[in-house]
What we know:
Chain A is an all-alpha fold.
Amino acid sequence: MRRLGVVAVLAVSVVVGVPGVAGAHGIGGRLDLPVPVSYFVVGAGVVLVVSFVALAILWPEPRLQDGPRHDPGRLTVRRGWVLPTLGVIALLLVIGQLVPPLLGAVTESTRPTIAPVLVWVLFWLVVPFAGAVIGNWYTDLNPWRSLGRRLGVGLGERVWVLDRFGIWPAAVLFLAFTWLELVGPDSGDPVILATAALAYTILLMAVMAFAGRETGLAVFDVFTPYNRLISSISPLGRRDDGRLVWRGWLRALPAIPEWRGLAAFVVVAIGTVSYDGASATQSARGVLGDLGQTTLGGTVLLAASVLTIGLAYWLASWVAARMVGGGLTASRVASRFAHTLVPIALAYAVAHYLTLIIFEGQQLIAAVSDPFGLGWDLFGTADRTVDFFITSSEPVWYAQVAVIVTGHVLGVVLAHDRALADFGAGAVRSQYAMLLLMVALTTLGLLILAG
Amino acid sequence: MRTRIGWLLAVVLIVTACSGETVTTSTTSTSILSIVTSTTETMTSTTGATTTTFAATTTTAASIDVTVSAGEVAGPERFSFAIGDEVSIWVLADTSDEIHVHGYDVYFEIQPGDPVEIAFTADVPGIFEVELESSHVPLFEAEVTP
């Protein structure tokens, strides 16, 4: 408790003493060209055809519901110190952005500091996306777990906190985080990022101290469930003894515990990316005009996007529940099928942020040489600019459409399997509701890309 | 299960392949629901109350594309170019600031009443934000299509 008090006092004094900073711009400023009509038509066509074909030929018995197979792999990846150290260094680099202004160092540089790239590209995009391939490496990278461990915080687990609140707190914080990214006045400002990171760290420390380290992180840390969900798509997982195992395709997703707020969390993921993509389209600009550009307008629209997706999912759940009958509630269906939307959420995010990673991600090379924007050149790369010729538009369009279609296919497969397990072969008609929702979501995703 | 997933993938591939001929890499990307069509308007600037004389500047272009007065931007929201085009957009503002073209990362200083030509070669495709750097006022977007 005393350590927490010290951290809190330091934090307050820092926040109070921070002077204004010259606007350092950060990530963004470049949008993708809209996907041409032909790509959209092909993508949507494939989606529709696949959905109908899938209904006809997919298996009649559930096959994915038994949880991950843990075939012993030959590769044992020990829990080392490298990833945790990297995670903590990254966190310190972000929070450390508060130091130069405090010391009165004024930056002449117009280059972005390392904070925006670290937060909005590496931490927010690259880590989860890589996890979808290699498994959940965030559990090792998590700087708050490392800090908590080092400071001896949260040794007793109050599991009832997870039972009672589920991941609702994480879902709310998720929304706040994306608000900062998409609507907040200056998401590239290192001081704003640093302050937010510091506040978040203090919050997590307090939560871990109360609820226990793992419980606290599971309930309040946005990135813990996010990475858990996304990496459940990966066929690679880790057994309790640390051994990396092949767990079979898609098997980890149905095994995700049905925490309270799971559906809300996935809805926030889809709704926020939808807002980001939709607000950049020409049609949205035309309709909303200047309203959409204000902070208040953006906030309202972000909330509306999330609510709309939530409503659509609730409706699909309700219809499915009604068709099955027998006292099944919409809420239960929503919880049972939340994991089936995860591939679609990932597809949305990858399609939308692919070029951000490819282009803005390159800023990392320059930023490591001058992490605080003070004019340093530690590795000689400080003047490296972004190479926009790394890829042309066409491969990006192909990738975006391919990813969205793949996400859809995976979602359909998962929903079919879960419907078989829950509704039985007789009531399999009820999965049409979810299928229709997925077609709608995927088409929306394609429309946003094309608009 | 593998056979069925295999069939599913085969269907996906076949459908995509069959429609392959219709996938053209168009030189202009038509956005499917575009309502706003970008036009470059010729505007004559109203220098009303200010005393800076327009005639004294050395601009040969008679048309100002974008004006900023009291934080309000008047002008098209988006200018479209093809790859390789020489961009030339004239901006007039009533504040002194720096105009930043994102992506291309070029800066142009602007003084009150002094029109500035935003000039660069559009060799990178995409949609790029152009804004007044210090005041965070977005001016317009430059769309460069392959």
